[in-house]
Amino acid sequence: MIIVEDGNMRLPFSRGILTRSITSAGVDVGVAYSIAAEVMKDLQKKKKRIVSKDEIRETTYRKLLEHGYKTAARRYIFWSEIRRKGIPMMLLLGGTTGVGKSTIATELAFRMGIRSVIGTDTIREVMRKMISKELLPTIHASSFLAWKAINAPLKGISPLIYGFERQVSHVAVGINALIERATKEGFNAILEGIHLVPGYISLTDMSFMYIITVESKEALRARFYARGLQSLRPANYYTDHLDEIMGLQEFIVERAREKGVPIIENIEVDKTVNLIMEDLMKRLSERLKQKGIRIEVVE
Ligand SMILES: Nc1ncnc2c1ncn2[C@@H]1O[C@H](COP(=O)(O)OP(=O)(O)OP(=O)(O)O)[C@@H](O)[C@H]1O
Ligand SMILES: O=C(O)[C@@H](CO)OP(=O)(O)O
């Protein structure tokens, strides 16, 4: 068995863990697994029982280059440097219901080795238990039905948007508290949810927001049916309100354009995840440069 030394810690070499960090470079999981296996063989050939993390990093980098994955090799080093330096950051994924936020968040967390994925629905759920329907009616409804819980002003704003905005501004109190706490403690997390609307959330200099969209009502309908098969959230509840849900997407996208938040259309999960990681790498290295932190390999 090969033992990996990392500071004071010693852990058995895990092909699974290495596979995961190789996928952070945008390499397909199957390729990542076979490269991790080759790295393991190389290390075994050296007949060393204890290897350092740097040795693993260098061997992996070399293997990626050998297989012609030049860009991926540089990305791999970038993300391992980020992990090694323990740079705290938050990733925020917003977008209307059903676009694929939690699916993408889980995949990103896996590739980036982030342990915490928090849905804003959970924050809303906690608030529901603490604040009665009489006091805050909008948080007790789905985003697209919040308008039914209150009387919107007669002019100037659509009731759908008015109800949603009320819900978002209440849930944002909990979200902002969470961001503040995470920043204070320096932990990495991915937040996802419909309540992450640009302009309502206080972003720190190490939090990065993306808005996920779906191309059409029909694509969204298909996603609700797919989700209905995998979970207890019935498709019809959402497909009966597709116009309202698309209306919320329009509102969120407008806010994102206003605030300069990147908008990513989610067609294929893998491509969406790669696009986010690519953009995040650029934004992150720019931000770190401003802070005077150098990351060795950046394209
Ligand atoms: N690019 C995609 N192509 C096809 N199906 C997708 C894609 N992205 C996500 N899905 C599927 O769409 C369904 C909805 O995705 P998910 O539950 O992640 O959405 P969400 O944005 O988190 O929704 P909510 O805000 O309601 O929690 C899931 O069944 C998921 O597997
Ligand atoms: O409010 C909503 O639109 C969704 C967001 O995920 O939540 P729920 O399905 O619980 O209503």
From TrEMBL:
It catalyses: (2R)-2-phosphoglycerate + ATP = (2R)-2,3-bisphosphoglycerate + ADP + H(+). Gene3D superfamilies: P-loop containing nucleotide triphosphate hydrolases (3.40.50.300). Keywords: ATP-binding, Kinase, Nucleotide-binding, Transferase. Its EC number is 2.7.2.16. Coiled coil: none annotated. InterPro entries: 2PKG, ATP-cone_dom, P-loop_NTPase. Pathway: Thermoadapter biosynthesis; cyclic 2,3-diphosphoglycerate biosynthesis; cyclic 2,3-diphosphoglycerate from 2-phospho-D-glycerate: step 1/2. Pfam families: ATP-cone. Belongs to the 2-phosphoglycerate kinase family. NCBIfam families: PRK04220.1. This is 2-phosphoglycerate kinase. It comes from Palaeococcus pacificus DY20341. The gene is pgk2.
